[in-house]
Batch of 3 targets.
Target 1
Amino acid sequence: MASNDLGNLGSKESAPVTYTWRFIDNLSGLAVWVILLIVFILFRENWTPKAFLILLPMFVVNILWIGVKKATGMPSSAAGMFDVMFNSFTIGMATVWLVSHKFAGLNRFVIFLLSLIVMVLVYALGIFSFSGLEFTSEAIVVTIFFCIVTAATFLAFALTGWRCRRRYTALRFMLWLALWCPVLCLTAMLAYALTVFIIMIVIMGRSFPMEAIIQIPLVGLLIGGILYLLLLPYMILVLNSDLFRRRFYGCFRLKGMSAPAVAETEDFSGERATDLI
């Protein structure tokens, strides 16, 4: 029962309010992790301790995310929605790498589309577990933001692979990726701002805040820098783990990428399993 002394303005105690908190409400944030669990169970290629190393970059970027929220003083109302986007992105990236052995040898455009589909499915489960079918204005904004970041991510990978098509080294790949992330995020933010500008000025007849025009390029570059920092732990693992490096090579197939024709992994039963590259 809530109570507060309002003097002559009203009663001191309000009517009691009863709310039943369901156990399932505590599990809404965990629903998106189900996809990761399914991928580990469904694909035999992930029945190896090496596959669980994908959890390390997820742990690192989550620590970074907690630091960002504290540094920016993000309010809890906004943090809830952005947590959904962040968790969906990190889990989605892990899922893409865990299923990437199925992409090896496919057309690069097909790989691009399949990666986007995986990310969208993970995000759809994440946003549904958070808000159900009630798609609020905040959810729409976060969804647009997620789409921009996700599209920029895989376009950055695609363009980096294109720039490294004649000569690949790990350093060259990471430097090009560091360039494309902010460039593509900046481009996407400018395109989004232009769309909003046209809607507000031409269709709705409203003014567009001039300060936003100055801030948008800076925001785009900042998002691109943060995106690269989020991808960096994953790429460090991919480039140093023979399991994920084979999958990386199988998807990009660039000159200079060399790997043995047959690689071995060890599952939990202690048996040796061979994976053709």
Target 2
Amino acid sequence: MVVMPELAEWFHPKRRTGQTRLLMVGAVVGALIVLTSSTLFSWPIHGLSATAASDDPNVAFDAPDGSCLTWPAGTANISKVDCSAKHLFEIAGTLDLTSKYPAGAPFPDGTLWQKIAQDNCGPVVSKFMGGKLDPDGKYSANALNPTAQQWSSGARTIRCGLQAAGPGGALQPTTGSAKGGDQSNIYPVGTCLGIKDKAVGDPVSCGVAHSYEIVGIVDLKSQFPDGFPADDKQQTALATRCGKAASDYTNGFDLTKAKLGLTWDTVKQESWNVGSTKVNCKVGQKLDDGSGLSPVTNSVKGVGTGVAATSTSTAPPPSG
């Protein structure tokens, strides 16, 4: 089994802002600004009952803090759902921007909306999470904002909340409240992550070009119950445990025959402190020139001695 932990540096995009990861309105995740641009809502904000109609056009801005929202891809049909169901956004708090942007203030452009979200939603989300937001976890902060027309009519309230986005920025459905939940940035075993510009993308079918295939999940807490393990201890433990996970997943396939290698994520102290102790074991390959990741096609699941996924890289994978 060839291991290459150095590949892990390409797994997560660089999205940290201080101690809170922020996917800004109008930036990487355009879905929310598209939704709010075609969604009407009423003022002032008031709480919705648990039986509120799912097609209520005011739901995004009427729902109380702690509510979870979802919508079909490419639509503005926002529904309030129980947080135990799949959802795309969890409301953490409400902010009134009137004091900073009084009547007559021009509608913020994309750059200013990013700054508003960064300056305001990070603290709101952190408070909602009891100060326990994993800066490298699966959740990030964002905001639902009024449209230009609503702004000109006096609307100055934004809803800050939590969402999970893939490495390429597309929102990923989650279940359960982020508050008190596991924030480990992991994917279900068998997930393939896309590839774009030699970097990791959002989940795709394993039959198309992808960067990594998740072959196992390891909870380091089970091996280190007494506290955070240093990086060298994590590497040693994961070389064994991810190696076994990959062997079980592939039915003993020799990854080098497909010019592939095994790698994994590790956990940082600040993530461990808030309970994020699980990591991905994954299969992929670097390009020959080391400039990024090589496209891989097909899955390695259960292949044994059969035909497996193939990397376009011509060089053997580097050893760990």
Target 3
Amino acid sequence: MKRNVEKPTSRLGVKVKTIVAKGKQLLNNSKPVSFVKAFSSKVLQRLNKTTNIIRIETKRMNGRSLGRQFLIYIKGVEVTLPRTVAVITVCSLLVYTSGSQLQKPTVLRKNLGVQPFVTTASMQSPTSFDIQDEVDKNAKAIEIKKAEEARRVQEAEELRKQQEEAARLALEAQIAAEEQKYSSSGVCSLAADNISFMDYRMIRTGSLQYQYLQAYMNVSADGLLRTEDGFIAVALGSYYGPIGSKYRFTTSTGQTFKVMKIDEKSDNHTTNGCTDSTNSMIEFIIDTPNIHSAVKMSGTFTSLAAFSGTIVQAEYYTE
């Protein structure tokens, strides 16, 4: 009597469908169904142990076996079949993949023509050892990549430190070379406690002083006129040499600033070519609208911390 069997799920591939059909055919030609049922569980257990291309599990629900249904996994395809059909299907599959003399079916694929039945070697799933090897290879590749990245970061950090050290040494060398250009020249008065100022517009156009202003000076945001390397435009007495002379002054409060003599105070207005009647030895040449309000109120640049105190040291700058 022909037995109704449950059709495999839609996930079943074309090759497996062919095998299931053959299993049904063998079932119809086999011993009574009761005989197959009696030994189905033992056969399935045996098959699980003897082949590496098929994995069979009893279908479960809530942790309990349903008994009549089996899950068959063939090359990653999951098939749910009744127990009897599952046994016959797997047996049929083993017959085809073991080199039996039975005629091997061909599978027609749309637009691809006739393709031969897949052999055992091509259907074999990777073993746990193969999977573990792949995992180990991936893990090793990740470790190598991390090590290379760490090495690149370390090399970049070392390069940054080397560049910083080179820049520091270069700056120190520049400062040392700059310091060698200064020589002590003495101060004409240690009592000068006033730094007066005059607007640069008071310098006569076309004069030597005006030419120096045009050639070397730029107006700064604080109203002072400076060279590109920071020398402030000033007027000094004849004690400090000709126009164009450069000095570095140090105050009693430890402040230092560099100046360039742009104008000369008249000897008629100074004592020994040094200080004037306001006890000013240095007179800044400025842009009046931009000077600090404290200077405007006090009338002297010593009201600013950067120029506070009296002049205690003068150093001549040699180009």
